Sequence to fold (616 residues):
Amino acid sequence: MSVDRIRGVLSPVVTPFKPDLSPDPERFVRHCRWLLSQNVGLAAFGTNSEANSLSAEERMELLERLVEAGLDPGRMMPGTGCCALPDSVRLSAHAVKLGCAGVLMLPPFYYKGVSDEGLFRAFAEVIERVGDRRLRVYLYHIPPVANVPITLPLIERLLKAYPDSVAGMKDSSGDWSNTKAVLDAFAPAGFDVFPGSETFLLAGMRGGGVGCISATANVNPGPIARLAATWKSPDADNQQKRLDEIRTIMQGYVMIPALKAAISHWGGDAGWAAVRPPLVELDAAQASALVAQLQAKGFDMPGLASTR
Amino acid sequence: MSVDRIRGVLSPVVTPFKPDLSPDPERFVRHCRWLLSQNVGLAAFGTNSEANSLSAEERMELLERLVEAGLDPGRMMPGTGCCALPDSVRLSAHAVKLGCAGVLMLPPFYYKGVSDEGLFRAFAEVIERVGDRRLRVYLYHIPPVANVPITLPLIERLLKAYPDSVAGMKDSSGDWSNTKAVLDAFAPAGFDVFPGSETFLLAGMRGGGVGCISATANVNPGPIARLAATWKSPDADNQQKRLDEIRTIMQGYVMIPALKAAISHWGGDAGWAAVRPPLVELDAAQASALVAQLQAKGFDMPGLASTR
Fold:
């Protein structure tokens, strides 16, 4: 059942905008192609993609542009979970139709303090309405942002009701004890757990995880993918340590504008810096400081500039 | 400038759903007509309308149905603030085109910890892109749900930049000290402040407010509107006390399903109980208990059943 599933390292691909703040498909396709060349898959329309600042129509058009450009939908896990049921259904059905390996699904995140019964119904309605055996749902647990958690009892209930459709989870809680509990409870039965940051990549692989889905895979894809592929090697702990150094620098800034500032610099393309409100781009001093900190660690984005 | 503005009591109109969970325009129009008959205006597509569980298309169609049914758009303040800029622009422009008195605008609410600069840009982009002098924006401060606050410095900056478009605020903080601070700072210059519950109706009117926008105005519209109209009368404090008794009962349940349970009962229309996930309707025991508590206070919804 799980042999052909999408695994390893995925990036919530940052979404480039034109000066008028409309999405920029050309830059988007180029960045996705570069990520794939670094052995990183495409969790497009994640939190760090500013996906919730995009309309459903904008997401669908960008996804179509990737597929039209010849990128492999088997390496794609677009985010499709919205507040409104019809939007989640429409985006998920669209992704399945395009052949995407899976969809990463936020719970409806406006109403807070909702019950597991209500969240079960929310996911169940999407799965039933999409009604396609090819659908693979990855539950997206990101309580620091969504403020609506996906609990272990909810996972258990969804797996029991939809064992073929519910394929795994991204855990962006930043709480290893939660990730470990999910791994221990569900990974042995084939539930694919992706920690939401490479910080937990090695611990996750050792605990039965299948990779990670990480913002910083937008800028440091090769080394993160290398650890996922070689986590049993003797230098795995050293690799993890080097990844953590880069991650720590990035976390010293607001993540999304910092990712875009790094891509602007190493790609030689100032147009990448734009973000949609309510986010604000790094100012010149912040961007310079970020670049200097990364350079001091020997950081590079090999091949990025040549794709511009 | 402010003479013809929408004021008094408004209801975030609950949205009825058919058994397949699609919106039910007929029940919606009937409930809105009843609210208007009780001197309560229509803040359709608010938090208690499950607006964020509706797609943009569903909201626009429901609003068109109200106007087509002959209801006065001058008594409407639909919610139009979404996470994605193009959705907020589209909904706001649509409401203005239909002649709505104003729009109630949530900040983009997915990303947390965003700056006032980013939120200023978010509102400014919507106002600029709608680009219509008839637009009247009411800022929607509801930190317990949106988790993204609208601060006093942000209001000040928006008022300075867009004095004609930024007309007022709904304060659903539940924090009277915040409402009072907003009233003191901005009401004297014509900024219309609506507390987010009738709990603060009398205090708000005495402090320079213009009414309230309250979930429970869906079920108790007449008495709430009466206090707004007669707040200077000697029995105002007694009126407030009676409103508080009903509000307290409603707050003992999850608000949205409780509103729908009350409408189901007093309207003699079981079809009203449906909610969209992630919400869950009251069970039979809860609904019975709610009705009994309300009946014990002499509660009624006069004229509701005859509109069914």
Notes: The first helix of chain A runs from residue 25 to 37. The interface with chain B takes residues 21, 47, 52-58, 83-87, 90, 107-112, 114-115, 117-119, 121-122, 124-125, 144-148, 276-280 of chain A (CB under 8 Å).
